[in-house]
């Protein structure tokens, strides 16, 4: 079989990288030893915020962490930032460079950079954030294994296949890049969504087949996982390259749908509609999920109706489409899931 | 140039104008579209999470329908595109899955062998029409029209799969806008999320997420926003009154489907492109463009 989708395509989906010189090679070649890097760093102490600009001399293969170290040694000895290992293991040096979450130890410098602390966590000082909100969330999710069966002794019969999703989650270095990039977490208390980083921590054990279903259900019920908007921003910034949406959040959603079905009402309604009609009728979906609450959106309903965007008759009675029969056959009734 | 064409559910319901515009523009571009009438929904984000087997079956069936016609598949929805790409990738890498799906498809004499090339309309413009030909086809350059490109998520993420570049580098829409004669703006939110996938059960997420994006586009001087995804369009256009109310600011930013912007530059009229079917009035967007004789349109 041919995998015709994988790059190189003819170029359309790759437009941009070369135009913006954004390969590591291109970045490094833009600077020569001794060149000056202009580095703006967000400073914060006791609620006062300012941006300090530093001229940092470029050294070959310089990383953001090297530049921060240079500043701390030569220009601002009171600069607060965290790092331990310097080799993409400890996950403590995450910051934002020009608006994007990075590990300072693993990112090449750019000629002009603005360095800021991670978002969505309180700043203690300068680039150091308070990890407590994340840690409290993780603790609340009880990310450990409770066996429903007795321990069978070593080695346990556990296959790679059974652990395929949990093992991805186990690559997490807890750097919080995804937590900072998540737009739903950025909305604060608007939803009960736990966020990508806590879900990855939970996935390490909730996706482990040895964990008891009752325990996993208890944890999942606290996650608000169906408020994930599937934007993949978490994956885009994950320095450990964990497929957070497809290999952690979606398998956890599947577990939630199975163990805590009331959490997945929206997803189950969509499946029911597709199974019956072949396609989604947006009116039917909203009615099914929101019930009479949908009528509180009356002004919008009228607007959409006037523009011919919704069709109440089609919503209520359905229309026969060529897609309905195959969908019914392939998805069947909900009970057959 | 012939394509099997998969419009998806939105373009056949809340965004029916997108389907109309796509057909009209395809004609101008010389694309022959064979609409797959029996193709089902790709399952949005929900089916893939709660019923992966059903998700793969529905998507591979769509790919098999295109393969039976020996045609590449053109999509016009970001999420459908990613669903189909994901299903294809799973199919070609998992023999057992491929066999199980094909057994189900055999009931209607369908079989997929992994040969369907999936391409979003935006990629078709670059890969099949080409920039040079597109420039030749632009009969009504939209000079003076300032647009803010809103990519949505699933045409540019997940990263490092299917050749997607880091989304902050994606310039495909801006470059296209320039070809059409528009001036694209840089603004916060061009590759941000519209929140559609939680909108049916909790629309406040979508409303909160998109307010700043639209405001940023407006503040940056955009006459309109353009998106390659009908799901983003549904939020940006259909929810814009609620978004403006939540922000406490007037927005009134027309949101164009990508084929509509292309169509205007190819000389199609706003009526032909169904620009009058939007919640936020969009029919006068073209008036911002300078007419060929150099005068500004009266509506400016």
Kindly list the characteristics that best describe this protein.
heterodimer, A: 337 residues, alpha+beta, Ubiquitin-like (UB roll), Fumarate Reductase Iron-sulfur Protein, Chain B, domain 2, 5-stranded mixed sheet, two-stranded antiparallel sheet, 14 helices, 36% helix, B: 300 residues, alpha/beta, Glutathione S-transferase Yfyf (Class Pi), Chain A, domain 2, Rossmann fold, 2 domains, disordered C terminus
Verbal overview:
The complex is a heterodimer of chains A (337) and B (300). Chain A is of the alpha+beta class. Chain A has 14 helices and seven strands. Chain A folds into three domains: 105 residues, Beta-grasp domain (Ubiquitin-like (UB roll)); 119 residues, Orthogonal Bundle (Fumarate Reductase Iron-sulfur Protein, Chain B, domain 2), CATH 1.10.1060.10; 72 residues, no CATH class. In chain A, 36% of the residues lie in helices and 11% in strands. In chain A, the strands form two sheets. In chain A, strands 2-1-5-3-4 form a five-stranded mixed beta sheet. A two-stranded antiparallel ribbon of chain A has the order 6-7. The mean pLDDT of chain A is 90. With 300 residues, chain B is an alpha/beta fold. The chains are: A alpha+beta (337), B alpha/beta (300).
**Name of the level-1 CATH class of the largest domain in chain B:** Alpha Beta
Shape of chain B: globular
Name given to the CATH architecture of the largest domain in chain B:
3-Layer(aba) Sandwich
Classify the beta-strand content of chain A into a percent band: 5-15%
Please state the CA-atom Rg of chain A, rounded to the nearest Å: 25 Å
CATH topology assignment of the largest domain in chain A = Fumarate Reductase Iron-sulfur Protein, Chain B, domain 2
Percentage of residues in DSSP E strands of chain B: 5-15%
């Amino acid at each position: 079989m041919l995998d015709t989708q994988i790059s190189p395509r003819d170029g359309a989906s790759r437009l941009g990288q070369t135009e913006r010189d954004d390969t590591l090679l291109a970045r490094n070649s833009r600077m020569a030893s001794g060149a000056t890097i202009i580095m703006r760093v967000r400073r914060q102490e006791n609620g006062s915020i300012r941006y300090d600009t530093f001229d940092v001399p470029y050294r070959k293969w310089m990383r953001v962490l090297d530049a921060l170290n240079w500043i701390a040694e030569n220009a601002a000895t009171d600069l607060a930032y965290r790092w331990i290992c310097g080799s993409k293991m400890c996950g403590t040096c995450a910051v934002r460079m020009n608006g994007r979450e990075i590990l300072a130890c693993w990112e090449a410098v750019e000629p002009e950079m603005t360095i800021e602390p991670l978002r969505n966590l309180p700043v203690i000082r300068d680039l150091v954030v308070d990890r407590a909100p994340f840690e409290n969330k993780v603790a609340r999710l009880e990310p450990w294994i409770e066996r429903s069966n007795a321990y069978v002794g070593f080695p346990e019969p556990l296959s790679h296949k059974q652990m395929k999703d949990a093992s991805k989650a186990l690559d997490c270095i807890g750097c919080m890049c995804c937590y900072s990039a998540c737009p739903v977490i950025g909305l604060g208390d608007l939803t009960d969504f736990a966020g990508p980083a806590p879900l990855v921590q939970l996935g390490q054990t909730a996706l482990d087949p040895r964990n008891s279903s009752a325990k996993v259900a208890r944890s999942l019920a606290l996650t608000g996982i169906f408020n994930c908007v599937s934007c993949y921003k978490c994956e885009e910034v994950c320095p450990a390259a964990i497929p957070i949406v497809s290999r952690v959040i979606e398998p956890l959603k599947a577990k939630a749908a199975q163990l805590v079905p009331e959490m997945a009402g929206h997803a189950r309604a969509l499946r029911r509609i597709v199974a019956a009609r072949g396609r989604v009728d947006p009116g039917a979906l909203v009615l099914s999920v929101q019930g009479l609450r949908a009528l509180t959106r009356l002004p919008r309903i009228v607007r959409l109706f006037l523009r011919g965007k919704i069709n109440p008759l089609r919503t209520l009675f359905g229309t026969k489409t060529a897609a309905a029969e195959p969908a019914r056959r392939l998805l069947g009734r909900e009970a057959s899931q | 140039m012939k394509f099997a064409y998969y419009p998806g559910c939105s373009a056949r319901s809340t965004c029916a104008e997108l389907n109309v515009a796509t057909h009209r523009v395809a004609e101008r571009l010389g694309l022959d579209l064979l609409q797959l009438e029996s193709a089902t929904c790709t399952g949005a984000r929900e089916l893939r999470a709660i019923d992966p087997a059903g998700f793969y079956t529905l998507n591979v069936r769509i790919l098999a329908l295109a393969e039976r016609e020996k045609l590449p598949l053109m999509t016009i929805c970001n999420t459908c595109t990613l669903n189909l790409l994901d299903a294809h990738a799973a199919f070609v890498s998992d023999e057992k899955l491929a066999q199980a799906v094909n057994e189900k498809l055999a009931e209607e004499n369908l079989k997929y062998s992994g040969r369907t090339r999936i391409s979003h309309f935006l990629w078709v413009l670059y890969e099949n029409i080409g920039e040079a030909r597109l420039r030749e086809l632009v009969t009504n350059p939209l000079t003076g029209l300032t647009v803010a490109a809103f990519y949505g998520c699933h045409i540019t993420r997940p990263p490092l799969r299917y050749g997607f570049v880091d989304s902050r580098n994606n310039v495909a829409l801006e470059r296209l806008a320039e070809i059409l004669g528009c001036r694209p703006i840089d603004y916060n939110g061009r590759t941000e999320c519209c929140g559609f996938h939680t909108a049916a059960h909790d629309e406040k997420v979508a409303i909160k997420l998109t307010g700043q994006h639209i405001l940023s586009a407006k503040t940056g001087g955009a006459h309109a926003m353009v998106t390659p995804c009908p799901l983003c369009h549904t939020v940006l256009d259909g929810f814009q009154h609620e978004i403006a109310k939540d922000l406490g600011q007037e927005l009134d930013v027309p949101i164009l489907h990508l084929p509509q912007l292309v169509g205007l530059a190819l000389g199609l009229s706003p009526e032909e492109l169904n620009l009058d079917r939007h919640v936020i009035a969009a029919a006068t967007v073209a008036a911002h463009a300078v007419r060929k004789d150099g005068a500004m349109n009266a509506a400016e």
